[in-house]
Specification:
Shape: globular
Order of helices and strands: HHHHHHHHHHHHHH
CATH superfamily of the largest domain: Farnesyl Diphosphate Synthase
Radius of gyration: 20 Å
Number of helices: 14
Number of domains: 2
CATH class of the largest domain: Mainly Alpha
Number of strands: 0
Distance between the termini: 73 Å
């Protein structure tokens, strides 16, 4: 009986991560692209994989909340050095941190956000949503900046950019999040102010009230993007200047598409043309800064 229990425990721990199949190509922004230093790309990819696997656990509709929390806690433990190979993304991330000397705090911050995703289904207001983004979004930019040895004063522009990208993603996925997980990031206070209801997310097209909620969030998000435009101006690394310039442009273009299209009627997403334009915009912004 003792041997059987050990086998069962081993099998259970072999399945901590639950990959969804999503990858870097599914994101709205470049992840460790050729624009940045070659030697740093694997470390950006390791962080992305770590966050992706944790996100997939939190979004797995087949897992109960307490099981999600157990798995996320296990990822955190392995990250901090616990033995075992049941969380390979956490093992790879730990090795990356050892090689680069970057703090593990950004990894623990995203785990905190995904623990919230496992248990929290509604957000009261914009401040509540931004408190979530502090852990789900801003650590991503901070990790990349720290990898490049950038000054932490760059966070003042990086944080709003990451927050903006997170809210834009929430707007893109508002129907899927509600349908699959009963999770709604759109704040309750905005539904109340606009005369909308969460149930409006079940309709084939956005109601007037829901459109008001979306537009209000886009107004706030565009304010974040304005603050983020200074990021390429304060980043020292030439490659990262180009990449951040492209990401700012992508955020601007996605916000515009969400303003003009209905995320209930169609999957609003960036086109190949958007990526090409944003790449050229990033190169131009970086060159302009360099000549400044």
């Amino acid at each position: 009986m003792e041997g059987t229990g050990a086998v069962a425990s081993s099998e259970l721990m072999a399945n901590v991560e639950t990959p969804s199949g999503k990858g870097r190509a599914d994101e709205n922004f470049p992840v460790g692209s050729w624009l940045i230093r070659r030697d740093l790309r694997p470390h950006v990819h390791a962080f992305y994989r770590f966050a992706r696997e944790a996100d997939d656990i939190a979004d797995n509709s087949d897992l109960a909340a307490d099981e999600k929390l157990r798995r996320l806690d296990r990822m955190g433990a392995v990250l901090d050095g616990a033995p075992g190979d049941d969380a390979p993304a956490a093992v790879a991330m730990r090795r990356s941190l050892e090689a680069t000397g970057v703090t593990a705090q950004h990894c623990h911050d995203v785990l905190r956000a995904f623990r919230l995703d496992a248990t929290k289904l509604r957000y009261r207001d914009w401040d509540d949503l931004m408190a979530y983004c502090r852990y789900s979004a801003t650590p991503v930019g901070r990790q990349v900046l720290d990898l490049h040895g950038e000054a932490r004063t760059t966070w003042a522009c990086s944080d709003p950019l990451c927050d903006a990208l997170q809210v834009l993603n929430h707007l893109q996925d508002c129907v899927a999040d509600h349908r699959a997980l009963n999770r709604v990031y759109l704040p309750e206070s905005e539904f109340a102010r606009c005369g909308g209801r969460v149930e409006d997310l079940e309709a084939p097209r956005a109601s007037r009230g829901l459109r008001c909620v979306i537009d209000t969030l886009l107004d706030r998000t565009e304010e974040l993007i304005i603050r983020a435009r200074g990021l390429p101006l304060v980043v020292e690394s030439p490659g990262l200047r180009r990449e951040t310039g492209a990401i700012v442009s992508l955020a601007e273009r996605l916000a515009r598409r969400l303003r003009n299209d209905d995320p209930l009627a169609t999957r609003v997403k960036l086109t190949r043309g958007d990526f090409v334009f944003s790449l050229l915009s990033g190169l131009w912004r970086a060159r302009r800064w360099g000549q400044g």
